[in-house]
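In response to the reviewer comment on reproducibility (Comment 2.3), we provide here a single inverse folding case reported in full, input and output, so that an independent group could reproduce the run without further information from us. The structure tokens appear first.
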């Protein structure tokens, strides 16, 4: 005679409806959405503390008048914006920043591509030269600026002496005179930062299939045509990203400009927007005005980035 073994509660052993069974335990589990929020919470806190809070504080400062070491605070509304945006020196600093960023990034790109193509070839000592070519980028900024100011000094600089020695000129070039200081600053910045472009382009060159160049040579394409029709299209995505990043970096570059020519010691105060923001905030103690300039930089670079990325996205879709 068959009988069913039941517990005193009237449920079969291992029943899913038991108080400690899998069904009860599943009802006590934390939902996946909550787990997802908990896992994202550290990153969200980091972004809030590093990005959102400083931006909110910057907005708050821009509508107040506050001294760096004082507790007194006055609400000014849009007066800081009106004062800054109507100042001629502000728009001059914007123009100098654009000239500096566009000029230095253009030269960095051209020089970086040229050196990367050269170092992509096989020759004796290639590894050592690759390592040496990174030296300008890893040198401390203060060392770069002091050495270049000594090299280009009009009285005892080796560059001036070498120019006269080889007969390029019979008088002082004046690399750091007011009329040439911006050009010199662009050249020094190009020398300092082109290795970043070079190493990025070199990394992309090493991933291109060599059969593409070999097919071009078989078809009779010369070096220039192979570069224009094969190499450059392969580098396009890397170049677009590099140009965007370098423009953002150079537009907001402070240390090289300030140490080399931003103090007015060379006869002309090259006050790009980051330098002017620093002078207005810490030199003049106007935190509200400095906040307005910083917000303008943020908005300008954000707008340029969005336009750039949107156009890139449209080209990729087509």
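Designed residues, in position order:
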């Amino acid at each position: 005679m068959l009988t069913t073994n039941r517990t005193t509660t009237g449920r079969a052993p291992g029943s899913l409806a038991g108080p400690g069974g899998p069904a009860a335990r599943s009802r006590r589990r934390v939902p996946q959405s909550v787990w997802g929020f908990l896992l994202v919470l550290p990153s969200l806190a980091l972004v809030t503390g590093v990005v959102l809070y400083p931006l909110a504080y910057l907005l708050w400062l821009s509508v107040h008048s506050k001294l760096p070491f004082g507790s007194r605070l006055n609400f000014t509304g849009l007066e800081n914006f009106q004062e800054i945006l109507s100042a001629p020196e502000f728009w001059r600093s914007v123009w100098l920043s654009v000239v500096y960023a566009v000029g230095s990034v253009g030269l960095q790109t051209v020089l970086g591509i040229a050196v990367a193509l050269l170092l992509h070839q096989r020759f004796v000592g290639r590894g050592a030269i690759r390592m040496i070519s990174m030296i300008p980028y890893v040198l401390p900024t203060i060392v770069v600026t002091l050495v270049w100011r000594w090299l280009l000094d009009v009285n005892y600089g080796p560059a001036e002496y070498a120019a006269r020695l080889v007969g390029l000129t019979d008088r002082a070039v004046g690399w750091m005179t007011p009329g040439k200081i911006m050009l010199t600053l662009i050249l020094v910045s190009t020398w300092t930062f082109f290795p970043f472009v070079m190493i990025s382009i070199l990394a992309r060159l090493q991933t291109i299939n060599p059969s593409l160049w070999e097919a071009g040579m078989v078809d009779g394409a010369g070096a220039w045509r192979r570069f224009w029709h094969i190499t450059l299209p392969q580098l396009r995505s890397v170049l677009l990203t590099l140009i965007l990043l370098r423009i953002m970096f150079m537009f907001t570059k402070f240390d090289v400009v300030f140490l080399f020519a931003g103090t007015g010691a060379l006869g002309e105060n090259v006050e790009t927007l980051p330098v002017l923001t620093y002078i207005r905030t810490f030199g003049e103690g106007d935190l509200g005005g400095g906040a307005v300039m910083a917000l303008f930089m943020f908005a300008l670079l954000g707008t340029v980035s969005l336009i750039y990325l949107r156009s890139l996205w449209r080209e990729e879709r087509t």
